[in-house]
Amino acid sequence: MEFNSVADLRSLSLLYPILLAIFRYIVSHPLIAQTNLKLADLVINYVHKIGPLHVGGSSPVRVMGILNASPESFYKKSVKKGTQIAQTVLKMEQDGADFVDIGGMSTAPYLSTIIPEKHEIKRVLDAIKQIRQVSDIPLSVDTCRANVAKEALASGVQILNDISGLKYDKQMASVVERYSPSLILCAYGKNTIRGNLLEQTKILLKQSLHIARRAGVENQNIALDPAVGFFRNKAKGKFYTKITSDWLARDLDVIANLSSLKMGQPILISVSNKSFIGRIIESKDPEDRLFGSLTAEAIATINGADIIRTHNVGRTKTVISLAQKMLKKTGKGL
């Protein structure tokens, strides 16, 4: 559209409030209102960016490949070192990964996996170096320790995935303020959680959003993770939220109600090979959980997930594509 005169611009300025009034009428219509969507839910997801990529809204569901540089990780097939790292990332990229999430220390709540920070830093930086020799795929660092995040972000990583939602390390907010990464904020609480666990999950996520905003990160660069697998009755590790009710029921409730947890933000879901799948299929071996993982990822996609974090990039990409096509046909979740 060209504007050839001041009069044209004046006409546009007169048209704007009319268009705005029409838009407000549409979103307040009963047919829209009965979906329980807010104005922010209709607009904000269309402008989100995690790293360099648009996420949410009309964007495709994104796939985040998991790269573990931590030998203590629960899923041994995901552990890579040396030249395996570059080869693995190239394969993930070929299979359709949009991001790669690097972990230098396992945070599985049922394992005792704390290692010295210097070891975690070395693992993460070595992995970044290997990856950057072969690929420029957007990278995320999976850590809740500020010094590790600082080193990774200083090395060019664009995304911080903190399973404590910026709450574990008091210095993390300062690191975030300095480097302004995109954020994946996981629901996490240091105190025992009771009552309606969906509502409590939203409260925990709102707390993390507040920390992020105070550190200068804009809403459009934040995704939320409802922490499937991290709400437990008991654990060996530090990185979990204690609850008194059934953790399996809680995780299934989260997956069934993802859209209600968004609060105007994109949702990342990480269910790949996790314990709730093992409990349902009655197998303690993570290598038995492939089909359960893919099923859960497809359901999560239909129910509103915007990013799927997975060990199985190629297969996950396939089920996401199928789920999205089915969703377009049916127009509703499960």
UniProtKB/TrEMBL annotation:
Name of this chain's protein: dihydropteroate synthase
Cofactors demanded by this protein: Mg(2+)
Organism: Candidatus Nitrosotenuis uzonensis
Single GO biological process annotation from the record: folic acid biosynthetic process
Short name of any one Pfam family annotated for the protein: Pterin_bind
Known catalytic reactions: (7,8-dihydropterin-6-yl)methyl diphosphate + 4-aminobenzoate = 7,8-dihydropteroate + diphosphate
GO molecular function annotation: dihydropteroate synthase activity; metal ion binding
Superkingdom in the source lineage: Archaea
Lineage start: Archaea, Nitrososphaerota, Candidatus Nitrosotenuis
Metabolic or biological pathway: Cofactor biosynthesis; tetrahydrofolate biosynthesis; 7,8-dihydrofolate from 2-amino-4-hydroxy-6-hydroxymethyl-7,8-dihydropteridine diphosphate and 4-aminobenzoate: step 1/2
Domain Pterin-binding: 61-321
Presence of keyword Electron transport: no
Record keywords, A-Z: Folate biosynthesis, Magnesium, Metal-binding, Transferase
Calcium keyword on record: no
EC numbers on record: 2.5.1.15
InterPro entries: DHP_synth-like (IPR045031), DHP_synth_dom (IPR006390), Dihydropteroate_synth-like_sf (IPR011005), Pterin-binding_dom (IPR000489)
